[in-house]
Amino acid sequence: MTEGMSLDISKIREDFPILNRTIDGKPLVYLDSAATSQTPRCVVDSIVDMYYNHKANVHRGVHTLSQEATDRVEIAREKARNFVNAASTQEIIFTRGTTEAINLVASTLSDTLCHGDEIVVTAMEHHANIVPWQLIQRNKRINLRVVPMNSRGEVQMEAFENLLSENTRFVSVCHVSNVLGTVNPVKEMIAIAHRHGIPVLVDGAQAAPHLKIDVRDLDADFYVLSSHKMYGPTGVGVLYGKKALLERMNPYQGGGEMIGHVSWEGTTYAELPFKFEAGTPDYVDIAAFGTAIDYVEALGLDNIAAHEHRLLTIATEGLMQIPGMRIFGTAREKSGVISFLVDGIHHYDMGMLLDKLGIAVRTGHHCAQPLMTTLGIEGTVRASFGVYNTQAEVEAFVAGVARVAKMFHH
Are 101 and 125 in contact, with CB atoms under 8 Å apart? Predict the structure, then answer.
């Protein structure tokens, strides 16, 4: 499908058998894709095919099955390279997900940090982009500096530039907030950081399923994403890193695969990307991730973004008609996520009652407790959209929220 064409959502939904489920006799309305997207049949078929026909350990065997499995992993690596527009497959490291990718960078970076060095993050980060830096903070006594946001949930760019100092060693920022839906101006943030000679990691977990990613256009030093938010299998992710930076970094883990030569006297490391891929990888799911990338690209990321933005607009306009409604995150650049509270109704109560109507939303702090503290709340209800969601589902969701609100405010 070419970019700019409208999607046939009913046909797309046929690819996702789970959407035929009912919950308490109601059709499932799945609005939790920001936590994990559902998986199309072609991706599951890819997993089955690998287990039934091509399963053998990769990169080590000369026999046919091993070579077939290896080919599928390396084809997936090329697809991931193309997806983010990296210069080389040597810059594509397979990980268990965004969280491990950030930990990999933080862990290897910690070797170079000293007392008083500073890491800059934003107020809207996921715990996966906070806690790894705090672990270093505990051992190295570095400082974590936090960029504030305005009332719309947008990064305050002047404050960001003012936070950068001669002590700043690294900037780590989400591309899209998993709570607010804010699309951060990461290209501009990277340019500012680079003027100060500071490398930048972009957490793309929430961006990759919705936006076209071009790491060379962004000039990102590192970019990380997860398969399971992109209609792919769980337990697989990608770390993109500029080759020159990856070559300077020490390995994250030791073992098989990441070695050049091992002796009792010492060890040399494999070339990129294998230097950072110790042990047997999840090659079955990596191959299936390649299938998921094909699926997303066949639909067209611009088409997906346009569809989800339309759903976001309908949901926002509908929710705003409900008395006591508070929506968190009204950035001018926003992705398909909507977090809200209705006055007098606990987010868990709202979530549980919506579930009785067959509507799956996420409730709680969304692994962003510091952001909740900034907002002065404990948690929110979050609806997030995928390519398979329909206008009718969004209308059912809005009607469900209105029905719950009426129950409490009767």
Answer: no
To which residue do tokens 């806690």 refer? Answer: 131
Cα–Cα distances in Å, from 321 out to 161, 173, 317, 402, 404?
38, 34, 7, 9, 14
Query: Looking up tokens 């990338």, which residue turns up?
Result: 293
* Catalytic residue list contains 367: yes
- Give the type of residue at 396: A
Sign of CA dihedral 321, 326, 331, 336: negative
| Burial of 227 per CB tally in 10 Å (0-12, 13-18, 19+) | buried
Q: What is the pLDDT of residue 410?
A: 67
What distance in Å separates the CA atoms of residue 148 and residue 160, rounded to the nearest whole number? 8
Joined tokens for residue 165: 């100092």
Q: How confident is the model at residue 132 (pLDDT cuts 50, 70, 90)?
A: very high
**pTM for this prediction:** 0.96
Q: Where residue 5 falls among pLDDT bands split at 50, 70, 90?
A: low
Spatial CA neighbour of 98 closest among 243, 202, 19, 184: 202
For position 393, what pLDDT does the model report?
98
Cβ pair 202, 173 in contact under 8 A: yes
* Complete domains list, the chain, with CATH: 9-40+300-404 (3.90.1150.10), 44-297 (3.40.640.10)
Calculate helix-pair angle for 283-299, 301-319, nearest 10 degrees.
80
Q: How far apart are CA 279 and CA 125, in angstroms?
A: 30
* CB 300, CB 2: distance < 8 Å: yes
DSSP bridge partners of 239: 93, 224
The answer to whether 183 touches 211, Cβ cutoff 8 Å, is yes
Q: Which residues contact 8 (CB under 8 A, 6 or more apart)?
A: none
The beta strand positions in 189-232, using DSSP E, are 200-203, 222-226
Note the pLDDT tens digit of each residue in 208-234.
999 999 999 999 999 999 999 999 999
Supply 340's token pair. 């809200």
Which tokens belong to 365?
């702090």
Find the distance separating the first CA and the last CA of the chain, reported in whole Å.
Answer: 49
143-147: strand order across its sheet: 92-95, 237-241, 222-226, 200-203, 168-174, 118-122, 143-147
Q: Tell me: pLDDT of 378 over 70.
A: yes
Cis ω on the peptide bond leading into residue 27 (within 30° of 0)? no
Token pair for residue 300? 């067209």
